[in-house]
Amino acid sequence: MLKADTVKPTLAQVVADRKQEMSPGRRFVEACAEHGLDAAVEYDVTITDSLTSSRRKPRNPARTMLRTVDLSRDPRQFYWHESAPEAGDAPIEGAEVRRELASRFGKSPIPELLTTTAWVQVPPDLWKDPETFETFINYRLIVRLCTAENVTIISGEGGLLNLPGIERMTSPGPFASAILRACNEIEQMGGTADGMIINPVDYYRAMGTGRLMDDLEQNGVFIVRTRLVEPGSAIVGDFGHGAQLFDAGRSVIRFAEAPEGTFTEPGIALKAEIYERVVVNLPTNFFVVSV
After folding, report:
1. Which of 68, 33, 44 is nearest to 240 (CA)?
2. C-alpha span between 227 and 225 (Å, rounded)
3. Partners of 278 in the beta sheet?
4. Domain coordinates of the chain in residue numbers?
5. What is the Cα–Cα distance from 16 to 10, expressed in whole angstroms?
6. CA 11 to CA 15: how far, in whole Å?
């Protein structure tokens, strides 16, 4: 039998534990008090995953959809993946029903992680009020970092929208929506459509004209609303088993000089960085659909 202290904590326990920990903002405030504008703090966690939201209405970031591999604690050399059969491949018995039997298996080295960066400009002397400065870091700088992280995961150079092997689906076929058709196709591949990334305009338009969004959520589809998917499209996939987020397990916040064009006027700036990259193990279990 497992000892009590080895059992994975519940979400409620995780939230309670985080409330007892020093927040990223508080750690930086203390460093600033000691080092002034030379302050820099290196964290042994990815700080976009270190704060709980106080919003009554959840707004889920893309990272919450993915299995995260912290490479600092769980180093890897490779990741596995499957791909659709190619023309000329020998027919596989049973693949007419279980399509995945015809898939090709492969492995690739862990790709170089991408740097995700966020900037904020600090109002003059804000650091003289430690409590306000802490909340500015936690709920402005890190929130902006969460948005930049969505770019890395969804629409950046290594994001889901730019990865090979993910098909586009423009027609609903025999279904009322291409979203539902994609959910069916994923199950026909042996997976489960457990997540969708959609532009807010399409989410709220669907809410105003029917029950599709409510039905999807009640059926266990985890929905992320973000501007980073073009209106009129959505990503539907088996996020739980079909993709991973490789994460360096470290972060940095420091005062720094921002690149030209970052702000509208001169001023003291804070920079935050994390390091990560998404990979897709089962590209056949993902679709970019027309909504």
Report:
1. 68
2. 7
3. 245
4. 40-83+112-290
5. 10
6. 6
